[in-house]
């Protein structure tokens, strides 16, 4: 069972955020958290917080399953362009140059590799409930 977390209107350019997102794509959750913790780029702290949110969303969906047994990994991470603030900067001879302040939207999907363990835990809990 997968869980999704989204981060909208992050005030950094999508290109800079994709550089950090590419580091953790397809990684296990623990490895990705370690990478993000020690990555000096600005987007790493935001992605770390988003990943922790996705993990807690997964736990909320799968209350019966244990996080350690699930073997979570990053199934998909997508960085799309967000809204663009357009500003003017003075230029020589009375002209003006346009400045585009870009933002991005990040979508993170976390899934369990070990689906058998998750479903086995759920069936075990259900069988225990029926016995009682």
UniProtKB/TrEMBL annotation:
GO biological process, one term: translation
GO-annotated molecular function: rRNA binding; structural constituent of ribosome
Name the record gives this protein: Large ribosomal subunit protein uL22
Record lineage: Bacteria, Pseudomonadati, Bacteroidota, Cytophagia, Cytophagales
Any single Pfam family the record assigns to this protein: Ribosomal_L22
Gene Ontology cellular component annotations, sorted alphabetically: cytosolic large ribosomal subunit
InterPro entries: Ribosomal_uL22, Ribosomal_uL22_bac/chlpt-type, Ribosomal_uL22_bac/org-type, Ribosomal_uL22_sf
Key words of the record: Ribonucleoprotein, Ribosomal protein, RNA-binding, rRNA-binding
Gene3D superfamilies xrefs: Ribosomal protein L22/L17
Function: This protein binds specifically to 23S rRNA; its binding is stimulated by other ribosomal proteins, e.g., L4, L17, and L20. It is important during the early stages of 50S assembly. It makes multiple contacts with different domains of the 23S rRNA in the assembled 50S subunit and ribosome.
UniProt gene name: rplV
Description of how the protein assembles with itself and partners: Part of the 50S ribosomal subunit.
UniProt record similarity statement: Belongs to the universal ribosomal protein uL22 family.
CDD domains attached to this UniProt entry: Ribosomal_L22 (cd00336)
